Fold this sequence. Notes:
Blueprint: H1 6-12, H2 16-24, H3 30-42, E1 60-61, E2 67-71, H4 79-82, H5 90-101, E3 122-126, H6 139-155, E4 161-164, H7 167-179, E5 196-199, E6 202-205, H8 212-215, H9 222-235
Parallel strand pairs: 2-3, 2-4, 4-6
Antiparallel strand pairs: 1-3, 5-6
Helix pairs in contact: 1-2, 1-6, 5-9, 6-7
Amino acid sequence: xPTTDPQAAARSARDLPALDAAIxxxxxxxxxxxxxxxxxxxxxxxxxxxxxxxxAVPGFGDPGARILLVGLAPGAHGAxxxxxxxxxxxxxxxxxxxxxxxxxxxxxxxxxxxxxLELSGxxxxxxxxxxxxxxxxxxxxxxxxRPYLVRELWLLDRVRVIVPLGAxxxxxxLRSLETLGYDVPTPKPRFGHAAEAVVGPYTLVGxxxxxxxxxxxxxxxxxxxxxVFARAASLAGLVPVVx
Length: 243
């Protein structure tokens, strides 16, 4: 049954599979629902023969994760097509390669949800679970989706390090931790690449989002992202490969 109240749906989820199901059924934001479904109809030439997922996208990775990556939103022809976060587009290619380089993923590439990719100690989600026009969810859409992040953090009780991928992920994480009752420093910690902040039992380690705007221009390079993931792994008590 479609979910129109994320707050109630998230609160009722007692485990990750139940939360994932609630996310997949979410139709709470009319603009995002219309956009994700329109992209599935229009498609792009290289994917014209594929059936798009065209729903909200749940998290992916280790249910016992000690590191949580918080991205922006599914790509219109990436996760909105494949149904798996950061899968099927250039941002995902960059991300998986960096995770693999430091030993947190067993493959450097994931093009389809059926690919045999496994993450070790890591789960990946998006702050907004539906593909937004121009990759820009509105503040209201971000707020509507936030209960899912709050609940995911509550369910992932082994997570100790959060890596927000970009400023929206950073802000969503801080707001979610506030909702969970943790004291966020005032003024709020500022986002930046490799910026760190401690909130309650969590350490946040920021990185620029692996969007093409950042990776094609050299603002974010593979060594930069690998260094952040190696730092996160060390803080989480995992054993990273030194990039």
